[in-house]
Amino acid sequence: MQRAEKSIRVAAPVAQVYGFWRNFENLPKFMEHVKEVRRVGSGQELWHWTLKGPLNSSFEFDARLTEDQPNKSIGWNSTQGSLGTSGVVTFTDLQDNTEVHVVMQWFDAPGGGMGEKLSRMLQNPDKMLEEDLRRFKDVLERRVHEHVAGEPLALKSSLED
């Protein structure tokens, strides 16, 4: 089993941080190892993931939401017959900041024991998660900064009319 756990503080309101993460199609924008996440069927409970693997391989699996508390937490488990993974992301409101805490686990590496060894050798899950969270922070804080920086200009132009 592989496990990664990391936290980061983002200078953005919890509703915006949760909302961006909860739109799972945004995940490839900051998660380097995620190629695509798309909804399966008409419900929002089941999602199909395509991940980048070692040596230009890819892995696909379906995951079902097990927890979705707006502005608080998102949890998931993979469905039976696919890569065994589970995790939870929690969002803690710290007034003008949000702490994002992620715990992810992988139970069955493709290729059995040899696949797990190869995966560990080529990729460090803790480092990957840390880098993904840094990119997430950069994306969110840039969006907040652009939004805030844009407001005075829009207000000024409407006052001049």
Key descriptive features of the protein:
globular, alpha+beta, single chain, 161 residues, 7-stranded antiparallel sheet, 35% helix, disordered C terminus
What does this structure look like?
- It is a single chain.
- This protein is α+β, with helices and mostly antiparallel strands and 161 residues long.
- The protein has one domain (2-160): START domain (Alpha-D-Glucose-1,6-Bisphosphate, Chain A, domain 4).
- The chain has helices at residues 14-22, 112-122, 125-160; strands spanning 2-10, 34-39, 46-52, 58-69, 73-78, 85-94, 97-106.
- A seven-stranded antiparallel beta sheet has the order 1-7-6-5-4-3-2, covered by helices on one side.
